[in-house]
């Protein structure tokens, strides 16, 4: 059927795989944004910088300390998450009762500072990060060649996203988090340290971005601009799914990645704007987003 349309199957499935990989990063990053906005009510513009920091920390751990990929996959999110906790305690916690604009401006400024520091230190040419030997090579599926590392990225992203959704939506801890955003005084009356819970939630959202950065490091060159190139698209994904919607972030992230991949096959000129076109249509039809709740 695809040959009748003049499209080789290898090209179609190759672009679908590329779209699924991009969708994996969209899903994890938009999930972190949705958690931070939905539970803390902060528009976190440093999220792209945290993603980039995850890749840089993985590269530094390997280059300076000899920590391999698997160790970095665990350590980098923790280290970047701790940095996020410090930022939340020192700066962001002062903005919770102010207009969203103040949080956006603060986090945007922090993102520029982080980018600028790393750009001055390492430049913008990009630093290589090797694929771990266990995931090198690939599988010949007949209709396409599937690199092992790309398959791992998709599976790991899906598992992390679904596990996060389950914890927030189906466990007692998630119920406490949701209740703390609605009525922190009542939750505090049950002996729960609400400020600490909020701080750890922000740190977890940041750690998700860093985890995505480590996954991205072997695929893309590690450079200070990698987060800035992605964050605008991720914000569009969050808006389409519904600001603060955990399920919306996951479904929309993977779905829009596939749509973007298909667009590159059938109409390449529109591939860079298709997500923003969809965002405009969704906002016209359903301003709260596909999975968002109307206030």
TrEMBL record:
Signal peptide range in chain numbering: none
A cellular-component GO term for this protein? plasma membrane
Q: What is the membrane topology noted in the UniProt record heading this document?
A: Multi-pass membrane protein
What GO molecular function annotation could you give as one example from this UniProt entry? transmembrane transporter activity
Q: Does the keyword Transmembrane helix apply?
A: yes
Q: What is its main location?
A: membrane
Cite a single GO BP annotation.
amino acid transport
CDD domains per the record? Answer: TM_PBP1_LivH_like
Compartment(s) of residence: Cell membrane
Alphabetized InterPro entries for the sequence: ABC_transp_permease, BCAA_transport_permease
TM region positions: 12-39, 51-67, 101-118, 149-168, 200-223, 230-259, 265-285
Protein family according to the UniProt entry: Belongs to the binding-protein-dependent transport system permease family. LivHM subfamily.
The cross-references to PANTHER family, in alphabetical order and at most eight, read: ABC TRANSPORTER ATP-BINDING PROTEIN, BRANCHED-CHAIN AMINO ACID TRANSPORT SYSTEM PERMEASE PROTEIN LIVH
Q: Can you name this protein?
A: Branched-chain amino acid ABC transporter permease
Source organism (scientific name): Neoaquamicrobium microcysteis
């Amino acid at each position: 059927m695809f040959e009748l349309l003049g499209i080789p199957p290898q090209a179609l499935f190759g672009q679908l795989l590329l779209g699924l990989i991009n969708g994996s990063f969209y899903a994890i990053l938009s999930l972190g944004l949705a958690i931070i906005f939905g539970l803390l009510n902060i528009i976190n513009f440093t999220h792209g910088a945290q993603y980039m920091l995850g890749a840089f920390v993985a590269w530094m751990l390997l280059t300076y300390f000899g920590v391999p990929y698997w160790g970095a996959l665990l350590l980098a999110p923790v280290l970047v998450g701790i940095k996020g906790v410090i930022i939340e305690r020192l700066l962001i916690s002062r903005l919770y009762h102010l207009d969203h604009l103040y949080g956006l401006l603060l986090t945007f400024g922090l993102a520029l500072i982080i980018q600028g520091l790393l750009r001055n230190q390492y430049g913008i040419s990009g630093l290589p990060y090797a694929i771990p030997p266990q995931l090198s090579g690939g599988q010949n599926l007949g209709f396409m060649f599937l690199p092992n590392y790309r398959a791992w990225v998709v599976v790991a992203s899906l598992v992390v996203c679904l596990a996060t959704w389950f914890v927030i939506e189906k466990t007692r801890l998630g119920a406490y988090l949701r209740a703390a955003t609605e009525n922190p005084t009542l939750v505090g009356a049950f002996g729960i340290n609400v400020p600490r819970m909020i701080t750890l939630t922000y740190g977890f959202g940041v750690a998700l971005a860093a985890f995505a950065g480590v996954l991205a490091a072997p695929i893309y060159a590690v450079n200070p601009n990698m987060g800035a190139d992605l964050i605008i698209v991720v914000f569009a994904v969050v808006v389409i799914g519904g600001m603060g919607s955990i399920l919306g972030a996951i479904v929309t992230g993977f779905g829009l990645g596939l749509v973007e991949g298909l667009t590159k096959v059938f109409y390449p000129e529109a591939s860079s704007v298709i997500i923003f076109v969809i965002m405009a249509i969704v906002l016209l039809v359903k301003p709260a987003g596909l999975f968002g709740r109307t206030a």
